[in-house]
Amino acid sequence: MASETVEKIGLHNLAPAPGSHRSRRRLGRGPGSGLGKTSGKGHKGSMARSGHGGPGGGKPHFEGGQMPITRRIPKRGFTNPFREEAQVVRLDALAKVAGDAVTVETLVSAGLARVGRGPIKLLANGEAPRAFTVSGIRVSAGAKARIEAAGGRVEP
Questions:
Q1: Cα–chain center distance at 71
Q2: Roughly how many angstroms between the first and final C-alpha of the chain, as a whole number?
Q3: CA 82 to CA 119: how far, in whole Å?
Q4: What is the dihedral of CA 31, 32, 34, 36, to 10 degrees?
Q5: How far is the C-alpha of 154 from the C-alpha of 143, rounded, in Å?
Q6: Which of 4, 62, 122, 126 is the most exposed place for a label (fewest CB within 10 A)?
Q7: Residue 95 has what pLDDT?
Q8: What is the per-residue pLDDT across 7-35, written as a single tens digit (0 to 9) for each?
Q9: What DSSP state is assigned to residue 32?
Q10: Cα dihedral sign, 19-24-27-33
Q11: 124-135 exposure pattern, b = at least 16 Cβ within 10 A, e = fewer
Q12: Residue 106's closest CA among 97, 93, 95?
C-alpha cells in the first residue's frame, strides 16, 4: 500500500468548491461584456434611473400618489417616554431563592431577574413557599398580604 503525501492546507492552495462562487456583474465595461451602454437597465423609465422609485424600491411609504396610510389614519393617544416596564417575578417562583432574604441580588443569582432590564416587581401568583424578608423590590398588595400571612415581612 503506497502512502500518498497530502499537502497541508494553506493560503496558496485554498479554493472554493466548484460552482459555489459566481463572479460579480461588471457593469458598463463595453459592448463585448453584454452589460455595456445601458448596463442592463434597458431604455429610460423609472427603473433605469439612479435612485429609482420603481417597483421594489424608492421612497418608503410612497403609494403612487394616493394619500398614504400614515396620513389617512387619525393620530390618537401618546407614548409615555418615562414608562418603565417591570420584570415580573411570581410569588411561587421564590422557592428557587436560597436563604430567607429576597433582594435584587438574590433574585438575579437565582435566575429570576436580570440586571439592567428595569425594576423588579413581585406579584401574587401562587403561595409564598416559606417566610421571606423582601427588601428593595416593588411588591403588589396581594403579594405583600401573602408574604405576611406566611410569616415574612416586606421592607421598603
A1: 29
A2: 82
A3: 13
A4: -30
A5: 10
A6: 4
A7: 92
A8: 899 999 999 999 999 999 999 999 999 99
A9: G
A10: negative
A11: beeebeeebebe
A12: 97
Distances (CA, A) of 67 to 53, 64, 72, 78, 119: 17, 9, 6, 23, 43
Is the pTM for the entire model greater than 0.90?
no
**Distance between CA atoms of residues 3 and 145, nearest Å:** 80
Query: What confidence score (pLDDT) does residue 5 get?
Result: 85
pLDDT tens profile 80-94: 999 999 999 999 999
Helix (H, G, I), strand (E, B) or coil at 101: strand
How far is residue 33's CA from residue 111's CA, in Å, rounded to a whole number? 62
Question: Which set of grid coordinates corresponds to residue 131?
Answer: 417566610
Helices (H), the chain: 69-72, 104-109, 141-149
Return the residue matching grid coordinates 429576597.
102
Residue 1 has pLDDT above 70, yes or no: no
Render 10-22 in DSSP notation, one character per residue: -TTS--PPTTS--
